[in-house]
Every structure is written in structure tokens, then in C-alpha cells.
Specification:
By secondary structure, the chain is α+β, with helices and mostly antiparallel strands. It is 52% helix and 20% strand. The protein is built from four helices and five strands; from the N terminus they run ααβαββαββ. The protein has a five-stranded mixed β-sheet with strand order 1-2-3-5-4. Helix 1 packs antiparallel against helix 2. The longest helix has 42 residues.
Length: 181
Amino acid sequence: MAGDIDRESLSFALRRQSHEFMNDLQVISGWLQMGNVQKALEHIESTKERVKRESLLMNSLGPDLYGWLRYLDLKIQAAGGDADVEAPRGLDYRDWRPCSHLEKAVEDVSCWMIKRGCARLRLRPSLDNGRQIVAIESLERCPCVEDLEADAAGYPRQDVLVRVGESCGCPCVFVESPIRR
């Protein structure tokens, strides 16, 4: 769960963040050394926009959900994939309750999808009729839907429903669990 992130994962996340920041500084420095002030300014602006989007995402998702999704992003990267997180507008994530069964299922399904060739994923958490749902969408076409359906049908977690669908012709897996008060 979000509150149970181990020290190694946290250390990795902080190292990655530091590495990304150093890369941005090196790119800006390179553009300036080559005399291309405009490109340096464009990179500064794109970096500011990326940081702003991340800050808005953090604020809209709240600390528990945001922390867990960032931890999941690290797991997905370690498995060779890439994940984007999308927060639907207008939802109150204060109602989101950490649930280890749901979190484990989302982690498992994300890894299945990566192993089946869906390396670029979008994670979209939502709340609907007393259920927490995470849609895991493939951002590319891959021939793994039937395999995912078989994996989902055999998923052995209590209080968790895993179902396969499609979004824009690409596989999408929905992982759901009831909200526990």
C-alpha cells in the first residue's frame, strides 16, 4: 500500500527524480553552450509544464492514491514498461481507501500486460457506485486480449473483480473492489 513503500523503492524513486532533474539541467546547459537560447527557454518551459502537471495530479489524487500510483509506476518501469497516470476531473479522491487486494491486483495485471507485449500503459483510477476502479489501458495495439481474459478469469483475489475490455481498439483491463469504510 502507499504507506508501506519500502526504503529501497523510495530511494530508487528519489534517485530517478534527481537523475531526471540533472538531465534537464544538462539539456539546458547544452543549448546555452551552443548559443541556442530559444531552445533552452523552450526546454525550461516544457520542464515547468511537466512539473505543473505532476503537481496538479498529486493535488487531485491525494497523498495515498498518488503515492501508490507512483510506486506502481516504478514497478512497471522495473518490468520494462512505461505508465501514464490520468486523473478524471471532478472526482473526490478523499473517498479512495487503500486496499491491498486491489493494489496487488493492479500490480499483477500491469505486469501481465507488459509481459504480453503491452508496454505502454495508462492508469485511470475512478470511483463508481461504491466501488474503486483502476482502468489499465494499453496505449498501443497488442494481440494479448485473449491471454489477458484467461489471466483475469483465474485471478484469485477476494473482493477484487478483474475484467477485460477495449479502449480505442486496444486492450483495457478494469480492476475493481468495494470501498471499505
